């Protein structure tokens, strides 16, 4: 078997499309050789060797030694050297390289092959003993650190002592003799620490480094990184061994890194930094301040350090030419690493460069305009989830963070404010002009006003679809949920984090994009939408098939949704409309009334308020569909809780407090989410549905008259499991429609449909479709009911499930294809068999999740609906799904 792939001298055994085998770095080194670019020769030990290594008790395939020896000879031949030769020794770098670039893997070892003899030869050959001894001490430091796991502080101590002794500031001040002396101190110290001398045999050094790269694949840092980024352990890493070129050979040598376009703005300008007489990662290590590559960047930065353009014009123009070629060859912005040895340029790495979302948009749009890529490719190049960065304030990445807790990144963006523990305090502080973070164990619909008043929401319980998370996303407010290490004590008014006590009024910051909770204020970056953003979104809109609607229930939400390009409302929840102070009273009167008459009386108070809510939303969405869900939550949630509240309702209704208390107790439910809610309310109290239907139709008629645009309300019946439930409610709603429309003399088209959110509904969809104009998959509840997992309580154990590999992804975040997805598919097909024109959509949180949107496209849904701030993400994801 072939385990080693050589590259060098204008050709290579591998190429860029062999990433899997050669790793990203190895594949691109091969590709650059094939393009005839100046790359120091070398070879790649494949990822298959890594796989073999772990499958065979950390041993190598038997042929590996001879293949490596052979490849080394070839590199020696190309460089006129020999590995281990005392006179003209080949020196190499050993570099790890997985398929996807992976921090956490072993760091590169440079100058391998140096020892007490070869260093003397290098000094003689280069005529520069200082360079030779500097290279040797660097090698010893790196090798000890990454291969022998000796703490680098050991060396820093020695360096600091010597600097102190000689009165130096910088490493570069040491002379050859001083470096030589320091190497002696290093070696003595190593022997003390490790009990054996620093390895002198270059072959021993090489195999030590190769082994360390493979071993690092399973180190804790690498494993964590893979888990976070869904990289399978089976991929393995490759090892690249490459002839050294030296950027530290004097004033005509240098090393640097560059991007073909600006990675933070996307501007089409070569952008990079370099250091004269330096090696490897000196540029990023921050020991000396690097210089700008181009003269233009130097002037921009107002730096008085000469640019590469001025300092080494020949190497510079060679580099500019190569950078351009690589960008057109890869058709993407490249991140380049290079070294100049005595005026000659060498390329050491190229890869697609990491960039901010802002830069990604600009680069994609400009590359399409330049004809380098197609518009479709441009659309596919942007990670939809990354658009979040643009739509919310974020924490300045360079700001210091004092992290006091960690929860789920429930709603993106960052916010700073005083701690308050109740919605009342939130409103009060807001009214006084202060910014607050509402900190709760969990939230309920009663906290809506507090959530509105707060800049952000922090809960210590609850998952990604807990009340706090869903509502915060809908409002576009940052939220961290389920921060389990924080303890909130309402009674004492404290929040405790690892022994630190925070009280009401203390300032904290939450980062809903990462889940971090921080003490104090932190510098922020404000969102800004660029021209490239709208251009790319236009291209995305042309490419997609599904429409994108928003889940919105207030005029403000509806406006935000439209401004982000929503094409209607897929879910207008009506329950939050009932939690306002004056409405909740009427609502409680209604629930606690003894008779239908009593209920009607209370409902009559609610009718005009509901009508006004709907009319405004219809006007904002004129010409676009608006799906309104009839009352859904358990009645339980509306019950008065305190004695004071009970007394207030009793007074309003003119009944005895005792009687009302009794009635409240009777309505108590053990399992409200599976209790008296959804269409069950409409079945027991049709008056509620009738009132809501009346409000909807009157509002529609009113809005149609005012805007002149067609208003098509879609009335959605929640929690249907039995076809008869829907038929029953539909009949009532239709009767009201006829009444209202004949009163107003207007013709309003409307649809009546249902949420599919119970497994029984999905299983029985064919029959349910007889009475439905549309299905909207309520995948939050459908996930909850299919798994039998309460979404409000799942955060704690689902995380354990993920860590233990039982599930890969949180099913409340990404739709579970194998279970919930099957139900969605089955119900869609059965529904369409009954009614070919059945409209299909999704309104769960999954409607804003790119992976779930891909699934919706596959199933052939007509639209997805998500919170207003996720609309751009959904538009882009829907386009990518259709491409
Ligand atoms: P990383 O993946 O962390 O970027 P690399 O393997 O690219 O690690 O190595 C880091 C740096 O080491 C390179 O950018 C380059 O400056 C230097 N380097 C690596 N190999 C060589 C070499 N053969 N000759 C000179 N410098 C090298
Ligand atoms: Mg590195
Ligand atoms: Mg690199």
Which terms summarize this structure?
single chain; about 900 residues; alpha/beta; Dna Ligase, domain 1; D-amino Acid Aminotransferase, Chain A, domain 1; Glucose Oxidase, domain 1; 5 domains; eight-stranded mixed sheet; eight-stranded parallel beta barrel; 35 helices; 32 strands; about 15% strand; elongated; binds adenosine-5'-diphosphate; binds magnesium ion
Give the SSE layout:
Layout: E1 4-8, E2 11-12, H1 19-34, E3 42-45, H2 47-55, H3 64-79, E4 92-98, E5 109-112, H4 118-126, H5 129-146, H6 153-166, H7 176-194, H8 202-216, H9 220-228, E6 237-243, E7 254-259, E8 271-276, H10 282-285, E9 291-292, H11 295-301, H12 308-311, H13 313-330, E10 334-341, E11 344-352, H14 357-369, H15 375-381, H16 388-391, E12 394-395, E13 403-406, E14 408-411, E15 414-420, H17 423-431, E16 436-440, H18 448-453, E17 456-459, H19 467-475, E18 479-481, E19 486-489, E20 494-497, E21 500-503, E22 507-511, E23 516-519, E24 524-525, H20 531-543, E25 547-551, H21 555-563, E26 569-572, H22 581-592, H23 596-620, E27 626-629, H24 643-653, H25 657-666, H26 679-684, H27 686-707, E28 713-717, H28 723-744, E29 751-756, H29 759-763, H30 765-768, E30 774-777, H31 779-787, H32 794-803, H33 817-834, E31 839-842, H34 850-859, E32 863-866, H35 871-882
Parallel strand pairs: 15-16, 16-17, 17-18, 25-26, 25-32, 26-27, 27-28, 28-29, 29-30, 30-31, 31-32
Antiparallel strand pairs: 1-2, 1-3, 3-6, 4-5, 4-6, 7-8, 7-10, 8-9, 10-11, 12-24, 13-23, 14-18, 15-22, 19-20, 20-21, 22-23
Helix pairs in contact: 4-5, 5-7, 6-7, 14-15, 14-20, 15-20, 20-35, 21-23, 22-23, 22-24, 23-27, 24-25, 27-28, 34-35
The site of one magnesium ion has 2 residues, from loops.
